[in-house]
Amino acid sequence: MAKLITVEHLCRYYGKYCAVNDVSFTLAKGEVLGFLGPNGAGKTTTMQMLSGNLAPSSGQIKINGFDLLDQPNNAKRSLGYLPDTPPLYKDLSVQEFLYYCAQINGIPADSIAPAINNAKERCGLNDVSQRLIANLSKGFQQRVGIAQAILHNPDVIILDEPTVGLDPIQIREIRALIRELGQDHGVILSTHILSEVQESCSHVQIIHQGQLILSESIAGLNQTMDTGSLLVTTRLSPETSVLLAIPGVSSIENIAGNQLRIHYNVSGDPTRHIAETIIASGWGLLELTPVKKSMEDIFIALTRGSDS
Amino acid sequence: MSMILIIAGREFKTLFLSPLAWTVLAILQCILAYLFLTQVETFNLIQPKLAAIEGAPGLTDIVVTPLYGNAGIILLLVTPLLTMRLICEERRNKTLSLLLSAPISNADIIIGKYLGILGLLLLIVFLITLMPLSLLMGGELDIGKLFANLLALSLLAAAFSSAGLFMSTLAGHPTVAAMGTFGILLLLWILDWTTSMQDQRSELFEYLSILRHFQNIQSGLISSADVSYFLLFTATFIILSISTLNNERLQK
């Protein structure tokens, strides 16, 4: 399959500080690539370079086969970009703003109206299209930003933290929209929220201190993280040696009183076995919660792995 | 080319969305109308005396030339305020990336913005020209000289706005851009004051002075040297603006 984006050995220095160091990846049609990393990891810098807002110090970016530096206009024609702050002219109404965006993206005059209607439909902006952008809530402004990025039906859509500032319902809608867009476009999404990647992406890349430390499909990521943990509370204090003997359990931490944290390997999930053992021993099971792996856990696991 | 016009059109319309353009148009028209009327009054007073003198200055010399001269000074004050937001505001509001990630070249962005603001300034020049034209109802004007004044003021507006655009591309804050533009323009305006005060005249300073070229054209002597001074001035600042915008992608 033809690659929509090919990035080779991308580097970016700010003075002596290296923000992005030797990053290479590709994106194909139908993929939603999640770009994951803590603050200051180089996510936004990478996005800015991909969108042509920032020139790379070295390396090459090709969009749809066009080099971003040699043929910028051809490359940018197949690109829709939402920066971390949505680029909105607050003096304009939603309709006027989208019309201007359609014009500067070179949409032919006769297909501007259907393109705007389609984008408004997809982002739920029909009710506010005559209102001034300055008077809209942050969530709606974010949606206008997304509408602007998908307006000209680009092959590649780059969204920098698209769900920031949205309420939970809007977040769900936007995630659904991203999944939908991912079916016939290539989407790159940057975020620091792990669940967002797990919900809407097909591939994930983790960037840390400017370097890619993981580049995997979602299934692959789940396998890489083959440890999980359970939070267990009992009425009477249980004997840890008995629980440790259960196959799959790797270690047990005593948090407070009768509360334990049990670490295990995902390959042989011992949750059922643990529950049965506690009940059979009469310790009185009060709570058994699977602890979701946080971004931090994965991070610590990965950075530790790369250090050793 | 069409992209340039789209950006220029948007810029021009946006100016009228804020009260700024309306205020500037209203205040300029008010002040210049007052100056115009005082000149007409003066002419009325001294007309009988002038009639007795052979080769005395006519209506155009007494009313039109001072009007356009004053308009030039007022443009010097107003242009920095109009141009300060061109690129600077886009950068501050982070809307510049909308233009940078669209399939438009930097030259298109800069020239489009420039034409947008030039449109407003030419509108001001047009409104000023209506005043002397109204004299045609009751008197006669030297149309050639009026045209020379119109040309001089238009070229001046073109040069001023290009310098303003460049400062706006450079500065991080609109106020800084306005101060910078005002500084450059005022310096170039008064540059030949120093040469006239001293005995030795600096030809370089004399050439660089905007005022001298402006007055040359105003006097009705349209020489290619003066016209090309303004065209070179404008082109230089536009090219500088484009290269500044190009550099922004490289360094930050």
Task: Supply database-style keywords.
heterodimer, A: 308 residues, alpha/beta, Rossmann fold, Alpha-Beta Plaits, 2 domains, six-stranded mixed β-sheet, 11 helices, B: 252 residues, mainly alpha, 83% helix
What does this structure look like?
The complex is a heterodimer of chains A (308) and B (252). With 308 residues, chain A is α/β, with parallel strands linked by helices. Chain A folds into 2 domains: 3-223, 3-Layer(aba) Sandwich (Rossmann fold), CATH 3.40.50.300; 226-292, Alpha-Beta Plaits. Chain A contains 11 helices and 14 strands. Chain A has helices at residues 43-50, 72-77, 94-104, 112-123, 138-150, 168-184, 194-200, 218-224, 240-244, 271-280, 295-307; strands at 3-14, 17-28, 32-36, 58-63, 66-67, 79-82, 156-160, 186-191, 203-208, 211-217, 227-234, 249-256, 259-265, 285-291. A 6-stranded mixed β-sheet of chain A has the order 6-7-8-3-9-10, with helices on both faces. In chain A, strands 2-1-4-5 form a 4-stranded antiparallel β-sheet. In chain A, α3 crosses α4 and α4 (112-123) packs across α5 (138-150). Chain A is elongated, with a radius of gyration of 24 Å. Chain B has 252 residues and is mainly α. Chain B has one domain. Chain B is 83% helix and 0% strand. Chain B has helices spanning 2-17, 19-52, 59-83, 88-92, 96-100, 106-134, 143-170, 174-197, 203-208, 210-218, 224-250. Chain B starts with a helix and ends with a helix. The mean pLDDT of chain B is 90. Chain A binds chain B through residues 14, 48, 51-55, 72-74, 76-77, 79, 81, 83, 85, 87-92, 100-101, 103-106, 148, and chain B through 3, 6-7, 10, 14, 17-18, 93-105, 249-250, 252.
